[in-house]
Amino acid sequence: MAQFLDLPIELLPLILQHIVRPSHFAALCLVSKSFYDFAVSRLYERIYIYAWHREGKTKVLKLFQTLASCYRLALHVRQLVIRDFPKEQWGSAHEKVLDHCLRGLRNCVYLRSCTWTRDGSLTSEILEALVESPQLAALEINGRDGWDYDHRILTRFTHLQRLSIIMPSSRVVGILPAWFTVTGATLRHLTLICKTSTLVTDSLLSRIAPSLVNLEQLHLIGCPKVSHSGILAVLTGSSRGITTLGLEGVSPAIDFAELVTQSAQSSALTSLRSLSLSCSLADLPSLVPLLATAPLTHFYLSISGTSSPVHTTSPTIIGTTINSSRDAAHLSVTSLSQFIQTLIDMHGPRLIRFSFSGIGLGIRDIRTVCSGCAQLEDLWVTLRTSSEIDAIGPCLSQAQSLRTFHLQFGNFTRHLIESSPPQSRSRSPSPADAEGASPSNSSILAYLSPASTLSLVKQCSATLVQFGINTRVWQVRHTIKSDGEVKVDVRLGLLESPEIPEQFQVVRT
Questions:
Q1: Distance in angstroms (rounded) separating the CA atoms of residues 143 and 275
Q2: C-alpha span between 275 and 262 (Å, rounded)
Q3: Residues sharing a CB contact under 8 Å with residue 176, sequence separation 6 or more, in sequence order
Q4: DSSP string for residues in 101-143
């Protein structure tokens, strides 16, 4: 009789490609020498440490001790994401930690991507060690240099393809023109994340644009001094064409119509496939010319500064009559629905991802998206009112290619939390709760009863692999049963991937 260990060794890579949880790879390394040879590379290939990880700082220390002392394991590292780091170390303890970090980084000779964003943890020595990485092509750092590192070292990274800078200081912003003259030829993706910074301006973008000839993706977040003129300089300066554009928290005076008119002469927007914007409800009509120019497949929109009648169930009316408030709310809802219908009419056949946040959508709008986008794989929306929750399932069933769905609630979330007994909120329901609970069960699964959550999932296409409500995300598991006929049992399980779900990320591609 054939045994498990008789499995042809050639099949192992095909099996392991479906495994994502690090603890599972660690267990596979203990099966046999053959399993170890294949699993250990997957275990160390991508390493993530986040600030919310239990004992994250201790894990950082142990990680770099391992990488420093075991060159063989460090050779497997391709991506390193360090978002937590012990900064309390002083004296000899700090020197020991830094020594492990430097030796560990130098041992990672095949490192291609490094993220180091913990404020105050990046040093000149660490940057110099990363400069020596021969294959490093992607870098994400905290741009607040302070007294921690010499910003001039950054200009020695000359072959980057992806660069993301968080909260850049005036010194870091000041060296960008010189830095991009040496790495601009290879740079494909550029992200600048600020907090309402006045340092990133149209003038700066105009200065760096001539160096960004091969840029394909641009994300600007929290840059209120950036308008259409600076963006246009980068768009027209790219010979490859910008395929992904993210503009969130830029100047409210940005003129999208002027941007479209000026870029039409150089066809700068014809390559655009992914667009991420934040704007007010009143700005929606001005976006239509921009939508008409680009063949979009990914669309993200965050509405800011909305009035309460648009997205709450019990608006507060101040200084106006009830009738006028209702009229304003009706007009807002109508303009929103018209905008969504226009978007679907233009891009529905090719749209793969649709994300709408900051304002609640009605069932009619969600149905428009699901029925009008045959290739839709990712849908992330906010529901306008709780009374429409039961109608979402039939809408989702129309999206036959749907893979991820994430739903946000507005005041409904607070209402459910406040009305739930304390014991219902004190524990995190297990996936098994989703099978036996009745709709009237007082426990809630991410602000929705377990039975209702599972009911929504079962109405979705069999292609669905991820389902989320508010801050909770589950992996959808389809188990095939054989008892006379083949049946598919749908269950909710813990998310296995160590990566942050993209709907929660600041930058989305």
A1: 25
A2: 18
A3: 168, 204, 208
A4: HHHHHHH-TT--EEEE-STTT--HHHHHHHHT-TT--EEEEE-
Higher pLDDT, 319 or 84: 84
Percentage of the residues of the chain whose pLDDT score is greater than 90: 51
pLDDT at 120 over 70: yes
Rounded to the nearest 5°, which phi and psi values hold at 200? -90, 115
Q: What does the pLDDT look like over 353-396, one tens digit per residue?
A: 999 988 889 999 999 999 999 999 999 999 888 778 889 999 99
Instruction: Please choose, from the candidates 464, 458, 459, 486, the residue with its C-alpha nearest in 3D space to the C-alpha of residue 476.
Output: 464
Computed on alpha carbons and rounded to an integer, the radius of gyration of the chain in Å comes to 25
For 408, counting Cβ atoms within 10 Å of its Cβ (0-12 exposed, 13-18 middle, 19+ buried), the class is: buried
The residue count for the chain: 509
CB atoms within 10 A of CB 342: 16
Query: How many secondary structure helices (H) and strands (E) does the chain include?
Result: 20, 16
Q: What distance in Å separates the CA atoms of residue 139 and residue 118, rounded to the nearest whole number?
A: 14
pLDDT, average across residues 180-203: 93
* Whole-number Å distance between alpha carbons of 101 and 260: 48
